Amino acid sequence: MAEAVVVNTYRQRIAAHMAGGAQLAPVAYMAFGDGGHNADLTPKAPSASATALNHEILRKPLAAITQEDLYSVTGKGAVEANEVVGAGISEAALIDANGQLVGLKTFAPKFKENDERYEISIKLRF
């Protein structure tokens, strides 16, 4: 599983929450995009300053979210056989219940065919 990036805006929300600010919304969605790769099909480096995917093409409720160890959380999402057929999925992000980016990862594009189901996991380390 490729390393994901926790975005700066989420880190800011954590700090504000710890200082008595607003409650943190739970991670609830996974967004999928086709803008996470370069022209030569290599992944772009994910940026902690990102506020959205480069080019989101699908957003769905998470299939699962787990805490595998004391310092991380993993969200799992799935692209079903009938969804985004023909797309070159190369980026995915965890989104909170308020629609705000939490973390993302990029990878070489997976070109989606109509008989394929893709499952993507994003592990955020704290």
Describe this structure in words.
- The structure is a single chain.
- The chain is mainly beta and 126 residues long.
- The chain has one domain (5-19, 27-125).
- The protein is built from one helix and eight strands, in the order βαβββββββ.
- The strands form two sheets. The protein has a five-stranded antiparallel sheet.
Element-level helix/strand string: EHEEEEEEE
Strand percentage lies at 35-45%
- C-alpha geometry: globular
Number of helices: 1
Cα distance, first to last residue?
16 Å
The overall number of domains is: 1
Strand line-up in the sheet with most strands: 1-7-6-2-3
Mean pLDDT: 95
Sheet with most strands: 5 strands, antiparallel
Radius of gyration: 14 Å
List segments where confidence is low: pLDDT < 50 over at least 5 consecutive residues.
none
Helix content: under 10%
The number of strands is: 8
Structural class: mainly beta
Comma- or semicolon-separated keywords:
126 residues; five-stranded antiparallel sheet; 1 helix; globular
Task: Set down the secondary structure blueprint.
Blueprint: E1 5-6, H1 8-18, E2 27-33, E3 56-61, E4 64-66, E5 72-79, E6 88-96, E7 101-111, E8 118-125
Antiparallel strand pairs: 1-7, 2-3, 2-6, 4-5, 5-8, 6-7
Summarize it:
The chain contains one helix and eight strands, in the order βαβββββββ.
